[in-house]
């Protein structure tokens, strides 16, 4: 097949190697009518088949060691998941195991065992709301028609955009108020339970830290940044009874979501590497505390392969 030699040319082994790291969040059991582009089991199964056929998929810690030493194999790739959704355990894990693949799961520890992230509280509130119009004027967030899927999708995007960069406590409070006004109880089963994180690890998957409450680190004072990072690491190390060496910056855009000082804190808090959401592939000599990642959403084999090639080209 012509794709594999092209991947090997752009991602050779050794000192000229390039590491492709993929980001996922959820893998739904079936396609979601509200968000049809969200990853689901059938698509993820196909994607894992392509990855297994075309790439040398490595555990992230092994890939970090290979980048550091200049010993990565050709066509090196890693799979990562952010946040800690329950479907990572119920849906993604069996598919990964079926294809013989390893992945790293970055856990926002404050949402385990019944928590709900602020953005999901918005999504699920507007999904389940039975009102024809959701009036959030009292919160300064306008009125939103909910006549159909498109209206709900538009309203969700608008609300997330308005709330995303507010302080963490304010995000929590306002999304609780949205749920109350929508007359919806937020779900308590979207995120993993602690024992499921432990089971992922026992199944051979890697676990990394992703802060406690998934804040925008660039907006926090230094001591709060330190607490968010250290407390998530401590919780996971106690849960797993071993050192946690990998970290993912929430949201992950350099400058917007984390700063050089955030990077320095992660270095000092006994991690070996950290991942961002800056697109591209990382090479030997790149900063191991700002490893690049991206998400290829393409649904067909040809488009997925082309996207992987384009990502590697952008890094050269």
Number of helices: 11
* CATH fold label of the largest domain: TIM Barrel
| Helix and strand element order | HEHEHEHEHEEHHHEHEHEEH
Share of helical residues: 40-55%
Distance between the termini: 23 Å
CATH superfamily of the largest domain: Glycoside hydrolase/deacetylase
What class do helices, strands and sheet pairing give? alpha/beta
Summarize model confidence as the mean pLDDT: 95
> What Rg, in angstroms, do the CA atoms define?
20 Å
Q: How many structural domains in the coordinates? A: 2
Share in β-strands: 5-15%
Shape call: globular
Main sheet overview? 6 strands, mixed
Overall CATH architecture of the largest domain: Alpha-Beta Barrel
Low-pLDDT segments, ≥5 res: none
Summarize the structure in short.
The chain has 11 helices and 10 strands. It is an alpha/beta fold and 316 residues long. Helix 2 crosses helix 4 and helix 9 (222-240) runs parallel beside helix 10.
How does this model look, in words?
This protein has 316 residues and is α/β, with parallel strands linked by helices. It folds into two domains: 3-113 and 190-268 and 289-314, Alpha-Beta Barrel (TIM Barrel), CATH 3.20.20; 118-182, no CATH class. It has helices spanning 3-10, 41-54, 60-69, 86-98, 118-128, 149-163, 168-182, 194-202, 222-240, 260-268, 301-314, and strands at residues 18-24, 56-57, 76-83, 104-107, 133-135, 143-145, 206-209, 246-248, 273-275, 282-283. Strands 1, 2, 3, 4, 7 and 10 form a six-stranded mixed β-sheet that branches. A two-stranded antiparallel sheet has the order 5-6. Strands 8-9 form a two-stranded parallel sheet. Helix 1 runs parallel beside helix 11, helix 2 crosses helix 4 and helix 5 (118-128) packs parallel to helix 7 (168-182). It is globular and about 60 Å long.
